[in-house]
Each structure stands twice: as C-alpha cells, then as structure tokens.
Write a structure and sequence with these properties.
The chain is mainly beta. It has a single domain, classed as TonB-dependent receptor, beta-barrel domain (Maltoporin, Chain A, Beta Barrel), CATH 2.40.170. Helix content is 5%, strand content 57%. The chain is globular, with a radius of gyration of 24 Å. The two termini are 30 Å apart.
C-alpha cells in the first residue's frame, strides 16, 4: 500500500518549496510533460477532449477510447464483465491475442501489467483526466518498444480543470453504484490532487438464458482506486511531479466461485525542465497481483486456483532537448524497463476437489532503449525522423510442478535470450495553406513477449492454451499517408490510408482438439482506411470515426492460418456522437457505435456477430454547483456476443440506465 509518510513528505516538499520563490516572478505550473514536437502531426493522431471523456454512457475509459477509429480490445466486453488478463488494447486491427500491442501511458508512465501486459482499465477514472491522445503506427520515442500499433497517452487533470472539489454518484436500474470524488487544492505555486473512485454491482448474466445452469451467476463486480498527485515548482523552469495510486478489482465470471481479482500499487516521480535545455525524467515502480479460479462448465466445480501472481515493474526514462533554435527540435533519450513475476497455481480434481498439482512459473524481462529524434521546420514543410535501439533480455525463466504434498515432480529451466533491435520512424507534414495539411510517415516497432505468454498456460473452458518459452520478439513495419482539413472554424476532417504488418506475430494457434499454443506466426498484415470528423458550431457538436481494415494472417502456403483474419478482429468499426449544449452547464449526447463481425478463434470457426449499439448522456444543471446526470448504455438492448467457443456464448452489457448527481466547486 502507499506509504502515508511518503505522501506527507511530498506535501511538505511543496509547502517548503513554494514560499521560497514567493517573491520571484510568477511561476506557471503545468503538471504535464514537454510539449508535442512540430513533427508529431506526421503520424495519424486523434485528440479526445475532456467534454468527450466525461460524457461517456458507461463512465469507463474503454468506452471513451472506443470512439477512436481502429481502437480495439481483445474482447468486446468492458472491464466490469471480463477477465482482467484479456484487457489487452491495440490499434489498426493488429490484434489476435490478449496482450496489449499499443503503448498506454498515464502521465508518461507505462500502465501495462508487468506479468500479463493487460491494461488495468478499471483503475483509470475518466473523470480524473484532462485529455487523451491516440497516435497510431509504430513508435520509436520513449518506451517505444511497447508501441507496436501505436500510443495512447492519458494526461491527468489539475485544479484549473477539476476545480477545488469535484464529485459524482450514480445508481443503475439494477442497483449498481458508481461514486467518485477529487479534491485539488493549490499549495503555494504548486498543487495536489487527491482522488478516488468506487464501483460495485451485482452485474448481469453473461450466459444466455438458454445456456444457464444452476451454477450460472451474474457478473458481480467491485472495484476501487485512489490516487494522490502533487506538483511543485523547483525553479521558474523546473517542476517536480509525484504520483501514487492504489487499486483493486474483484469480479465473478460466469459461474459461482469463478472469482477473479487484480490489484496494484504504483508510484512515479517526474522532473520536467522547460528552460533552454529542456528535459523530462521519469522513474516508476509498480507492484501488481492477479488471482483467478477456473470453474468447469461440465462439473461446475473449481479445476484451477491461480491464487497468487505477484509481479513487479521498474523503469524510467530521461529525455534531453538541446536549444537548437525554433526550426529544429532534437530529442535525445534513454529508457529502461524491468518486468518480473511469478505464477502460483493449484490444479484441482473436478471430482474429488483435491489438489492434483502445484505449479509455479516465472522469469524476468528487461528492455534498455536509446533513441534520437529530430524535427526540422522548413517553411510550410516539417520533416521528422527518429532512430531507436533496444537491448531486450528474457532471463531466469522456469516452470515447476509439485504434487499435493509439495514434493517436486518436474522442473524446467529455460535458456536466456537477448538481442539488439533497431527501429525507426520518419515522416513529413506539408501545410498547404491554412486549410489543408498533407502528411506521410513510415515506421517500425518492437514488442517483447510477456511473462504470461512465455510461461503461463491457461484454460477458457473447454479450450486450453499452452505457453511457449521460445517465443521471439514481435516486430512491425508500416507506412501511411493522410490529409487533414480545417475548412472552417470548428471543423476538422481527416482521412488516412495505411499498410502495417507484424512479423513473428504471437498468436494462439490451434494444434489439436480444444488445444492451442502461443506461437510466432510469420506475419499479420493490416491494410485499411481510417477517417474522422469533428464539427462544432454554437451549441452543436459532432464527432465521428470509422475504420475499414483488411487484416490477415500469413504463415506459409501449407498453414491453415494463411489468409484468415486474426482472432477478435473486425473488418469494419464506426462511431458517431452528436452533442448539444443548449445552455451553460447543459450537455446532451448520443453515440451510435457499430462493430463488425469477428471470429473467436484463429481458424474462423466460431463467429461473433456484428453489433450496433446506441448510448446516451444527459447533464442538467441544478443549483449550487450540482447537476443531474442521466446515462444510458446499449439502449437497443442488443445482444453483444463477446465469446463463442463451440457455441458456448458470453454476452456483453445489456441495456443499463444510470441516474445520479455531479457536483463541482
């Protein structure tokens, strides 16, 4: 848990630092990292503002991100009714397994779980964010070894956005509750933000009525998170940012006793310098855990108890920007990440309930990266290019089995692996007047296999998926071209065509009846078009996006996978939101979202039908800073199939109506 003395020490630092500079010139504390460079627009990107973030129908960050063309979770279900280990996120239909292929950063810190690679979505409260930036395509900047399909950068809000006090509480028609609050006082020239959120509910039946048994239960959930973020100026150009967070999530999936939990304790320290020699330095530590009980769909008894999966993440980065003039921005940096963890589980007899085997597995992954990137402005043209080198290691891997009495029956240790990989990216933006911007980019990327993929087998009844300690790094190459139009004030239009491919892609490959194994396949190739539109005039606002992607696996002429679409990958997805603000404090928004057909498996045998949903959000100001909030999810009450294993189906969220109050001062 977060050390109380540590938090008090940080507050004391702010209180002591600020008065010392009280007589100096006014100090502006920003609370974020360094600004985007002029070459950033060369890569396809979408910015989500706070109004869109805080007006989603579900109040979940994955719902917010689903409005972005090409964003995809491994499964369609949200973080109230899915296994956390399936919460991988990716972009551009470069999916196929549950690990994130997109780099997700919160205030510059990678959020992926050190063992599994999933994103703890329930720990990210949208109401605490100021903005979200989604950049597609391989990355070579800081922590770029995780940006195989793109980067999702989340920025926390400060007092200017949140106000001194902000809170909301809602209840659904099923009696589920959502409550959150933040207090953001200014402390001298700095500030602090203390926030918390608590969600709980009995959930809904993920199992269709025709397939339920006496053991079928609702997807009950309870999650909470709390964070403290403090920002203090150390000089007129340098600020210290410290963030700590504690979270926990408990869920029940499908059957009674199929309990799942995830938890984390994260802390980070950041120094940002905005003087002539700009710099950004980050250090972070993460302690995570995961538990899971698998219940047989045949006997309805526990068959596996993954009772402990402690994992640790360590890392940091340092980036320097020398003063080279207004027309050149050079970034020089290095970053390092270390992920370690241990899986501990007991196999259980579905007949007697006795433990039949006690298994442990784990290892250590590290990544040391060096990067350089330069943007050059030549009148209406901006050129950008970057080079990155990564030293990746996979070490200390093992898998052992003991009997019920604890006696060792087998132990396998795996050979260490290490490699140097060079990736790159480059692009250009041509500003053809004030209305048109033409852009083109090419890039490459890298992702290490996770400890989960290397060492942890798992079962989603009736299919067992084996781990594979010989997996190689995934690499990506791609290019894109696009046009951005701003024909009038409040109007933004963009279209991007792209061709991306992942080589040595890790996929769950069928090797027998109800048996799969994680393997490197030759290639996943995704070619497609993304489009986005933003229109804002007076009280009216429209945001729309669509992605059409032709994605296929290639694994040699003799492979049954060749020509197949990657698992869980739609060909078409679209989202459209219409918003109206008829008066100050009023918000009315409706979102129509469509996701095309997907396949559960690599052989395209089990289909997940297309789904179209309608969501709504209404906020009406009352008095004294209070507002009435009404939300509606899946108003058509559409059956959303999130899993189909040989006809055994799970469903996503049905129609859900929320009502509550929001208060801000």
């Amino acid at each position: 848990m977060v050390d109380r003395n540590f938090s008090l020490a940080v507050l004391a630092l702010i209180a002591s630092a600020s008065p010392a500079m009280a007589d100096d010139a006014p100090i502006v504390v920003i609370g974020s990292g360094l600004e985007q460079t002029p070459g950033t627009p060369a890569y396809s990107a979408t910015q989500i503002d706070r109004e869109a973030i805080t007006s989603s129908a579900s109040g979940r960050i994955e719902d917010v991100l689903s409005s972005v063309a090409g964003f995809q979770q491994f499964r369609r279900s949200d973080s109230r009714a899915s296994n956390p280990s399936a919460q991988g996120v990716t972009l551009r239909a470069l999916g196929g397994n549950a690990t994130s292929r997109a780099l997700v950063l919160l205030d510059g810190v990678p959020m992926a779980d050190p063992f599994f690679g999933y994103i703890p979505l329930s720990a990210i409260a949208p109401e605490s964010l100021a903005s979200v930036r989604v950049m597609r395509g391989g990355g070579s900047g800081p922590f770029g070894a995780g940006a195989l399909s793109g980067t999702i950068a989340l920025e926390s809000a400060g007092p200017e956005t949140l106000g001194l006090f902000n809170a909301q509480a809602l209840v659904s028609q099923r009696g589920e509750t959502e409550a959150s609050a933040s207090i953001a006082p200014k402390l001298g020239d700095g500030f602090a933000v203390l926030s918390g959120r608590w969600d709980r509910g009995k959930g809904f039946f993920t199992t269709p009525e025709a397939q339920r048994s006496a053991a079928s239960v609702r997807a009950k959930y309870e999650s909470w998170s709390t964070s403290l973020r403090v920002v203090a100026p150390l000089s007129d150009t340098t600020e210290l940012q410290v963030r700590t967070q504690v979270f926990r999530d408990d869920r029940v999936l499908r059957f009674k006793g199929a309990d799942t939990s995830s938890e984390g304790q994260d802390a980070s320290v950041r120094l940002v310098g905005r003087g002539d020699w700009q710099f950004d330095a980050i250090g972070y530590v993460q302690a995570r855990n995961f538990t899971n009980i698998v219940v047989s769909a045949a006997s309805f008894k526990p068959t596996l108890d993954q009772y402990d999966t402690p994992a640790q993440g360590l890392g940091g980065k340092f980036e320097l920007r020398p003063p080279l003039g207004e027309k050149m921005v050079l970034r020089l940096g290095t970053d390092w990440r270390r992920a370690s963890g241990t899986m501990k589980e007991n196999a259980i007899s579905g007949v007697t309930g006795a433990v039949t085997a006690r298994r442990k597995a784990g290892g250590v992954n590290t990544d040391l990266g060096f990067y350089a990137e330069n943007d050059v402005t030549l009148g209406a043209v901006v050129l950008t290019g970057g080079l990155r080198a990564d030293r990746t290691t996979i070490a200390d891997g093992y898998f052992e089995v003991r009997n019920n009495a604890g006696a060792l029956t087998s132990r396998t240790t795996y050979a260490d692996q290490s490699d140097w990989t060079v990736t790159w990216r480059g692009g250009a933006v041509v500003h053809a007047g004030d209305v048109v911007a033409l852009r083109a980019a090419t890039y490459s990327g890298l992702r290490q296999p996770t400890l989960n993929e290397l060492y942890r087998p798992f079962t989603v009844f009736p299919v067992t998926t084996q781990a594979n300690a010989t997996l190689r790094n995934e690499t990506q190459k791609g290019y894109e071209a696009g046009i951005d139009l701003t024909p009038a004030r409040g109007v933004r239009l963009s279209v991007t065509g792209f061709d991306n491919r992942i080589e040595d892609a890790i996929a769950n490959v069928t090797i027998g009846a109800n048996l799969r194994q994680r393997q490197n396949v030759d290639q996943i190739r995704a070619r497609g078009i993304e489009a986005a539109a933003h229109l804002e005039s007076g009280m009216f606002r429209f945001d729309g996006s669509l992605a059409w992607t032709d994605a296929e696996l290639r694994n040699g002429a003799a492979s049954a996978l060749t020509g197949k679409r990657p698992a869980q990958t739609p060909r078409f997805a679209a989202s459209a939101t219409v918003g109206i603000a008829p008066a100050a404090g009023w918000q009315v928004a409706a979102t129509l979202r469509h996701v095309g057909q997907q396949f559960e498996d690599d052989l395209e045998q089990d289909s997940l039908p297309a789904a179209t949903t309608l969501d709504a959000f209404v906020m009406v100001p009352l008095a004294g800073g209070a507002s009435l909030v009404l939300r509606g999810e899946n108003l058509f009450d559409k059956d959303i199939v999130t899993r189909n294993s040989g006809g055994s189906i799970d469903l996503g969220s049905p129609r859900t109506l929320w009502a509550g109050l929001r208060f801000a001062i």
